[in-house]
Amino acid sequence: FVSSPPSAEFSTPLSANDPPLTDPPTSEETLRTALVGPANRKRQITRLPTWLQTPIPTSPNYKRIKSDLRGLNLHTVCEEARCPNINDCWGGSDKSAATATIMLMGDTCTRGCRFCSVKTSRAPPPLDPHEPEHTAEALKRWGLGYVVLTSVDRDDLADGGARHFAETIRKIKHKAPGMLVEALTGDYAGDLDMVDLVAGSGLDVYAHNVETVETLTPMVRDRRATFRQSLRVLERAKGVREGMITKTSVMLGLGETEEQIWEMLRELRKINTDIVTFGQYMQPTKRHMPVHNYVTPSVFETWRQRALDMGFLYCASGPLVRSSYKAGEAFIENVIKKRKAGRDVSTMQQSGGIDTKSIVQNA
After folding, report:
1. Of the ranges 190-199, 257-266, 310-319, which one carries the lowest mean pLDDT score?
2. How many CB atoms lie within 10 A of CB 48?
3. Looking at the whole model, is its pTM more than 0.90?
């Protein structure tokens, strides 16, 4: 395994000069309340903030992408998890400008996290052996530069579905060598050999979500998932290949404290996690965990800056930010291409066959 020393920034103590999370909201960030219920049993609720309201998807491109997916029997986390950004990500002017996160291994998960709307079952249907080929062919047709693959958890399978995931990545790279692949995986029940298998399949970004701070993990995630196990997954993936970019995502609004977020970020920097994203938790149905609080855009911006100051390569932070966010993908794509270009230049320099000055001038 290849690993690099942790950044010194993660140990920087909380400064008294840091802006608190309790800064008064701006006029645009003031929450609205309403009284609902029968006259003798009125209760006050908080209305959905304006910054979380999104349009209903109706664009022609949205309909085309949905049709393509159904025709190939492919699933997306965009639909299964009811992502609020689906209109934005699928509604580009053409399919090559769109972003869709493909969800492998079916639409039924063996775990029951309290925030997630994906269907659950102890015995999901068997894997589709044609899915890796169909996925690769669909993505090749779309001509995307960057694709995100994720999957349901499959604790019913001996390998957790790792071989199926790795095979899909290899087929994508074979059909579209220039396409960059981000894999958002589960924890494979702590089997780090399966992490090695997926991380070594040719992907460019290995993502695994811690979802929330350590203290809240038992209340938010399935009992088989732990914060420390997620850290081990990210650390192991980082060491599989030099230059591997690792990424994780966190929901705010579950009742976490400021110090708990700081501690989580420090733990992520200890293992050299490159990218972190913050988004607002939104209750998908009444059966799921309620929203504890709505975090304002200005607080999200505060955490974005704090993460960058700690040494993270990139941080997307905002109410509607999710694990796969196309603005973030554009940035990561640029970083990966620059790194690859740098390695190519270095290799050619060593062989004596490159004019470095002309390369820099033309970059």
Report:
1. 310-319
2. 13
3. no
